[in-house]
Design brief:
This protein has 139 residues and is α+β, with helices and mostly antiparallel strands. The protein contains seven helices and four strands, in the order βααβααβααβα. The chain is globular. The two termini are 14 Å apart. The structure holds adenosine-5'-diphosphate and magnesium ion. Adenosine-5'-diphosphate binds next to loops. Adenosine-5'-diphosphate binds at residues 53, 58, 62, 92, 110-111, 113, 116, 119.
Length: 139
């Protein structure tokens, strides 16, 4: 089924000029980038986006990282886009990520792991709506 997922190219990756290389992995996997914008995430946006992790010990560090440099927010569209993107991103910890995945190739560590991808269709809808209006997504 064609669906959409939400992606962020994180500060560690934009800082190292990896946006194009990451987009190439995304497109080579058959996912279409149907919306994309480079922004500086505010502290309020980062806190809200990662609210589910607010009790975790790394929450403060995570919010600090996400606001430390620009990010590229994206909507990806394709067959089983949520699961497909999770697969090509690789495991949260790059040491556990499979060969060829974005995190295996580019991530620095478990915190600075280059990309975010939604973990369910329900969360994808919520996350997309935090950064894009319907008319900004051109499928
Ligand atoms: P994912 O991004 O793979 O969905 P989680 O939702 O579990 O992973 O965590 C959200 C983000 O929080 C991770 O991508 C990573 O940037 C950060 N994070 C997760 N676990 C840790 C950790 N143990 N130490 C530092 N940062 C972490
Ligand atoms: Mg997650």
């Amino acid at each position: 089924m064609t669906e959409r997922t939400f992606s962020i190219i994180k500060p560690d990756a934009t800082a190292r000029n990896l946006t194009g290389k990451i987009n190439a992995v995304i497109e080579d996997a058959g996912l279409r980038i149907v919306a994309q914008r480079r922004i500086r995430m505010t502290e309020d946006q980062a806190k809200k986006f990662y609210e589910v992790h607010k009790e975790r010990p790394f929450y403060g560090e995570l919010v600090g990282q996400m606001t430390s440099a620009p990010v590229v927010v994206q909507v990806l569209e394709g067959e089983n886009a949520v699961a497909k993107y999770r697969e090509i991103m690789g495991a949260t910890n790059p040491e556990q990520a499979a060969e060829g995945t974005i995190r295996k190739q580019f991530a620095l560590n478990v915190g600075e792991n280059s990309v975010h991808g939604s973990d369910s269709q329900e969360n994808a809808k919520i996350e997309i709506a935090q950064f894009f209006t319907d008319d900004q997504i051109v499928g």
